[in-house]
Amino acid sequence: MRFCFIVEEQYRNDPMPLVVADQLLQWGHDVDVLETQAAVTCLSDLTTQGYDAFVLKSLADGPGMSILAAAEAVGIPTINNSRAIRLVRDKAVAAAFGRAHGLPIPPTYFVAHPRLLKQIPAEDYPLVIKPSNGSSCKGIYRLNSPADLAALEIAEADDSFFLAQRYAENTGFDIKVYVTGKEVYAAIAKKSPLHSDVDEKFIPLTPELRKLTLHVGKLFGLDIYGIDVVETPHGLAILDINDFPSFGRVPRAVVRIAEYVLHAAKHAERKRLARMERNRRHSSTGKRNLFLVDSMKS
Questions:
Q1: N- or C-end of the chain: fewer Cβ atoms within 10 A?
Q2: Mean per-residue pLDDT, 128-139
């Protein structure tokens, strides 16, 4: 099979997803790596390149999203799809969409600039402040009360919009869960940006956590993803949803992701062939019926 991996400049030196591309090459498949900041892309030739699927590791507003959406528009399978990526990459959209569909996401405000935080009612504190386009746990702040606003200095104040989310009391660590398709691989306790260090370790993947994780994927339409949750006195709370995360510490992660990419591409090809066969039969039936009508008129 033949794949095109779109890699944004920010991820050029990251192992993921290039290690997956290398694995597919080792298995005898053809893989092209497209760096959108380094090369032009001929949109007129997308359908003639013979790609079985496009795979994207993207920024929320990166140029790779345009290429991925263009591939979808001409019928080429993509992993993940552009709609799913956009839904989760803009954290404001993800929070609104998730809450509207019943996900346990803490109450959240959209804040265009930190100076507007003073408009949030005192009863919603403590607050967690984070960029709406953030990643890698960067730029996250906690405010225990409105009095903390006076000393707040946000480095990203002029470069991003923000979310102000009600802090959810929890066990002091984040739980990271990784998924490809319907396979939930691991629950890992990781350091929270708001708490002291913890030893990263695998923890039990409870039925409740597994069910929630798969529901997130189905709701957002994700193929390869991860979620960050915390355990609160009221149950699980979702803090973040990521398309194509690092899969850190997941056993055989590279092989598992590569296998899923192959599976997804083959499944899409079977669906395409089945659709072509249905169209062929429909066309044949239509022609036969037209022949019978003409014969009766004669």
A1: C
A2: 76
